[in-house]
Design goal:
Blueprint: H1 2-15, E1 20-23, E2 26-29, E3 32-35, E4 38-42, E5 45-46, H2 53-67, E6 72-79, E7 84-89, H3 96-103, E8 107-108, H4 110-113, H5 119-132, H6 140-177, H7 179-237, H8 245-248, E9 250-253, H9 261-265, H10 275-285, E10 294-297, H11 303-333, H12 338-344
Parallel strand pairs: 4-7
Antiparallel strand pairs: 1-6, 2-3, 3-4, 5-8, 6-7, 9-10
Length: 345
Amino acid sequence: MGMVSHVVSAQEAVNGKPKVFETQMRAIDAASMFAGKAKVKIWGVKQLDNLPVLLAEKGRVALDNAIGKEAVQCELKKRFDDFLLAQCVNSLDQDLGLLMLQAGYVSVDRGLIYNSVFEEPYLQAENEAQTKEVGIWVSDDVKTNNEIGGSRLIILAAVFFVVILSVFGVLSIIIMRGFEKVIDAQNLNIDMLGRERRLKNKERAVVASMLDSEIKANKSKIEAYLVVYEEMLADIKNPQRQPKYKKAGDILQSQPALDRSVFDRNTDKLDILGDQLSSAVIHFYARIKTKPDYINLEPDMALEEATGLVEKGIHNAQRMNKIADRLIDSFDDGGLSSEHFDEEH
């Protein structure tokens, strides 16, 4: 399978753990891609069979746009005879499966995501697409209305024209007599809309401030994790002395232990942040495990295997740190940071 097969096989030979490969890709449909001659299916999602041609093509274009021109990074989940099953992110560290679920072009493969850290965000993304009725979740009523809308439009236009002529005189009198009442009603409506907007802005500021604070606290934990495990990596790679784990063993925390309580309590309010920022927040929290896995580094473990495990933990934490930086900047640029909230309140 060309370059992808070579890269994955070479990495698999290191320590037998799930491996990461990075390469240029192009979409086949909303749930799979070509990497050279190799077919890569996106883990955790599936495209429904017998989709209308136009809808299937829109899904393919959406995935191509999400991929962009940069290389895609994937973690191999399983190898099959004719394709690779992998979880992939684009150059912006956006999970491609999650993006396609949010756009409504794929559904969740529940058997694959069951009991994984991605189960909740994937199901939530599918539910949001259903609620918004996008992609494959467009209701039958909408489809039917689109199909017969053209003919009905002509009939309705004719009926409307007759009705408008019939009531024009009466309507004119009503408008003249009720002009003052209309003005009063409009003013009342404007006042109500203004109060509703202020309440929503206040709620938006409160939720955004709490999320911003949690993300900043998580960033501090990520940085502390990096300090600890970069020191461990330096010890393992030091040719002048035997690594500490070789003497009595050691424990590797696979990823930083981060908080998500604020996010979990406010998943139903994320839309007030706007589509772009709420999507970025969901992608960040989809990576978080409140209780990360621990790996024992036994004294008899090969040096190359221990090095690979620690490097993987550091690499993932560095990516999380970059995403946290981008989110913090986005909150600040939008006037939604916790500091901005404190200044105004």
